[in-house]
């Protein structure tokens, strides 16, 4: 009953989180003063740099670890990360683009029907967990895919996981609905 | 009275001022704040001795006081070092002149320009008489004068009256109204006047020998009227020191921008107008300087006359006022202007010293009121001077705001690029060899070190296509109370800062801003 629904579903990737390392120490103050479009958070110890072209926000730590968020695809995340490294290079740091890794991908899709969460949870006892007082959605964890699916009563589904985007369909298919 | 167009507008408002004879200088002051976005409206009818116009910009005053402080504090050090006082004075002169030429000048100039850019036109029915000016208008507290009128676009800083922003000329202004131009000049209307926009070709007429006389009825259709403010009070001064501060009526304000506009000076009907209203001292020098700019040959005399004649009222304020230059446009006669400025500076110094000797204490408003009236004339005249800013824009920033930037505290520096420019000297340190190695070199070195970092310099990674739209000179250097961001909406709550916008300096204690990224 699930598979027939999947073909018509639009799975939209809304967020890709990636990290990479520059293999060199970064002086946050220099970045904050000389970089463009930067937000310095000294209390936390990081600099946020926002890129316009791939709409990306990067958290830059002084250790050289950079977390890139806001991309809409994995390729875009990589491109944005490289651009970011390029910017840091221009600021004068000996940046090396290494250990690029996509950490998380968030996708949403919407079922054309409403979902009865309580029944759904009952059917999927051990896998699905539903705490209405904490969160209005059912949390469905697929271990072998390392994905977490949140099912809302309106039929919206968000999938978040470390796998590739094409695996999302698998995740959704793996989810028994209705 | 001459009115010069504000920097942002080339509109010349012509108005006719009624001059009134006063046996003594008017010292009162009041004014209604006019919407500053409009080229200043000014109607003046001066008079009662208690009316005083002050249009020393608050920014310039602040800067001058800073200069004073620094110089005075350095005096001992200088003498300890064995340097003559002369050196210190030279430094001071240089500093003041430089500052005035660049920013503060604009400040004053804007003041005077705004005020002087309008010319009042008396209604046709006006008949010249020896009207006794009665202070029928309530004089609001003068503190509003210093409330950064330029910064507040639409605030009615003065309680009494404010012309709407969308004022369409000509404007009829009834008698008994006191107006204040955006630049801070105060004008009191005793006679119903009509303020219209002057033709471009209006020019301030300098009447060096003008004495307070009666006004002739202006030709109604003629838009260009006598510039209310003017210079002439200074010219009159020599003849009678306490002379009524009346500015030459036929001082049309002209755009400082194009010299061509300042052409038909002599045509004002009011030229011969006897009474010169002394609306604001600052105005007087303006037309003269404008004249200087556009017609250097015929005009320098009157200007010089006025400059020398003007009594030394306020020391610093007047000096800065006289130094007004038109930064806006073409440096038409910059050389002349510079010479004149230097001359003026010297003269004003002398006058200031004289003033100081006259007055025991040098205070701001009181001294201004007492002494500075005549000096104020010069502002308007000076405003017409067109002078290009040299590198002073940045240099002044550095010298004045360089210190705060060096602090380790993270100040709310809005313009990252500007800060970058200012920080050039610091260079980036901290173990990253920036200064020496070029970007290309660094990239090449890194290019093929590991498979993991194929960061080819520019091959793979496209340059950030950031148009350097931050290459502006508009900078705000301040402290921040709160900076907030929601997605790409930013809100700024700033405090205690200086903003350099359009070449002019604005000093504020609180500022709120919004922006979208």
Question: What does this protein look like?
Answer:
The complex is a heterodimer of chains A (178) and B (517). With 178 residues, chain A is of the alpha+beta class. Chain A has two domains: 17-103, TATA-Binding Protein; 111-174, TATA-Binding Protein (2-Layer Sandwich). Chain A is built from five helices and ten strands. Chain A has helices spanning 3-6, 28-34, 74-91, 117-123, 167-173; strands spanning 12-21, 38-41, 46-51, 56-61, 65-71, 98-110, 128-130, 138-142, 147-151, 156-161. Chain A has a ten-stranded antiparallel sheet, covered by helices on one side. In chain A, a hairpin with a 4-residue loop joins strand 2 and strand 3. The longest helix of chain A has 18 residues, at 74-91. The model of chain A has no long low-confidence stretch (mean pLDDT 85). Chain B is an alpha+beta fold and 517 residues long. In chain B, strands 1, 2, 3 and 6 form a four-stranded antiparallel sheet that branches. In chain B, strands 7-8-9-10 form a four-stranded antiparallel sheet. In chain B, strand 9 and strand 10 form a beta hairpin. Chain B starts with 11 loop residues before the first strand and ends with a strand.
Beta-strand segment tally of chain A: 10
CATH architecture of the largest domain in chain A: 2-Layer Sandwich
* Largest binding interface between chains: A-B, 38 and 38 residues
Mean pLDDT of chain B: 54
Q: What is the rounded Rg of chain A?
A: 20 Å
**Highest CATH level, the class of the largest domain in chain A:** Alpha Beta
- Per DSSP, the total helix count of chain A is 5
Order of helices and strands of chain A: HEHEEEEHEHEEEEH
The low-pLDDT segments of chain A are: none
């Amino acid at each position: 009953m699930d598979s027939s629904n999947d073909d018509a579903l639009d799975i939209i990737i809304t967020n890709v989180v990636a990290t990479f390392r520059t293999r060199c120490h970064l002086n946050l103050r220099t970045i904050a003063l000389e970089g463009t479009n930067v937000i310095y958070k000294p209390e936390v110890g990081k600099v946020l740099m926002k890129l316009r072209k791939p709409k990306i926000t990067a958290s830059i730590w002084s250790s050289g670890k950079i977390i890139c968020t806001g991309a809409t695809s994995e390729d875009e995340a990589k491109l944005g990360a490289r651009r970011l490294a390029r910017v840091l290079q221009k600021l004068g740091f000996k940046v090396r683009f290494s250990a690029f890794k996509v950490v998380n991908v968030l996708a949403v899709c919407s079922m054309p029907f409403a979902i009865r969460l309580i029944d759904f949870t009952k059917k999927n006892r051990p896998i699905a967990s539903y705490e209405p007082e904490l969160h209005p959605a059912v949390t469905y964890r697929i271990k072998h895919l390392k994905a977490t699916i949140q099912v809302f009563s309106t039929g919206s589904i968000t999938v978040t996981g470390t796998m590739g985007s094409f695996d999302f369909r698998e995740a959704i298919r793996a989810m028994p609905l209705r | 009275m001459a009115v010069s167009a504000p920097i942002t507008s080339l509109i010349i408002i012509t108005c006719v001022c009624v001059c009134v004879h006063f046996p003594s200088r008017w010292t009162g002051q009041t004014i209604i704040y006019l919407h500053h976005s409009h080229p200043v409206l000014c109607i003046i009818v001066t008079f009662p001795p208690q009316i005083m116009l002050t249009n020393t910009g608050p920014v310039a005053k602040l800067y001058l006081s800073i200069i004073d402080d620094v110089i005075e504090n350095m005096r001992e050090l200088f003498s300890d070092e064995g340097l003559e006082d002369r050196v210190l004075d030279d430094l001071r002169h240089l500093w003041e002149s430089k500052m005035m030429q660049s920013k503060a000048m604009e400040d004053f100039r804007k003041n005077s320009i705004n005020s002087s850019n309008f010319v009042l036109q008396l209604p046709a029915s006006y008949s010249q008489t020896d009207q006794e000016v009665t202070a029928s208008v309530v004089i609001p507290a003068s503190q509003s004068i210093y409330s950064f009128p330029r910064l507040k676009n639409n605030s009615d800083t003065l309680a009494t009256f404010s012309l709407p922003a969308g004022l369409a000329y000509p404007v009829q202004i009834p008698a008994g109204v006191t107006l204040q131009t955006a630049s801070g000049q105060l004008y009191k209307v005793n006679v119903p006047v009509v303020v219209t926009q002057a033709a471009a070709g209006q020019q301030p007429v300098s009447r060096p020998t003008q004495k307070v006389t009666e006004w002739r009825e202006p030709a109604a259709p003629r838009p260009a009227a006598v510039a209310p403010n003017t210079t002439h009070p200074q010219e009159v001064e020599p003849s009678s020191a306490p002379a009524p501060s009346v500015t030459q009526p036929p001082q049309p304000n002209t755009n400082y921008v194009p010299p061509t506009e300042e052409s038909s000076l002599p045509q004002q009907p009011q030229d011969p107008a006897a009474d010169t209203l002394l609306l604001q001292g600052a105005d007087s020098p303006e037309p003269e300087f404008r004249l200087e700019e556009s017609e250097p040959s015929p005009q320098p005399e009157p200007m010089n006359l006025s400059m020398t004649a003007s009594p030394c009222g306020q020391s610093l304020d007047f000096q800065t006022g006289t130094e007004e230059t038109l930064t806006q446009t073409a440096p038409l006669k910059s050389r002349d202007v510079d010479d004149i400025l230097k001359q003026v500076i010297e003269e004003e110094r002398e006058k200031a010293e004289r003033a100081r000797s006259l007055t025991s204490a040098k205070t701001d408003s009181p001294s201004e009121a007492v002494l500075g009236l005549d000096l104020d004339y010069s502002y308007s005249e000076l405003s017409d001077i067109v002078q290009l800013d040299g590198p002073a824009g940045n240099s002044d920033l550095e010298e004045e705001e360089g210190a705060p930037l060096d602090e380790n505290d993270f100040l709310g520096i809005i313009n990252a690029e500007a800060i970058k420019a200012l920080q050039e000297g610091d260079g980036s340190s901290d173990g990253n060899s920036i200064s020496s190695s070029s970007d290309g070199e660094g990239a090449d070195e890194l290019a093929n070190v590991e498979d993991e970092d194929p960061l080819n310099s520019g091959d793979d990674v496209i340059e950030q296509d950031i148009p350097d739209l931050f290459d502006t000179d508009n900078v705000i250097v301040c402290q921040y109370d709160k900076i907030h961001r929601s997605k790409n909406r930013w809100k700024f709550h700033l405090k205690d800062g200086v903003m350099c916008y359009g070449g002019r300096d604005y000093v504020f204690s609180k500022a709120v801003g919004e922006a979208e990224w």
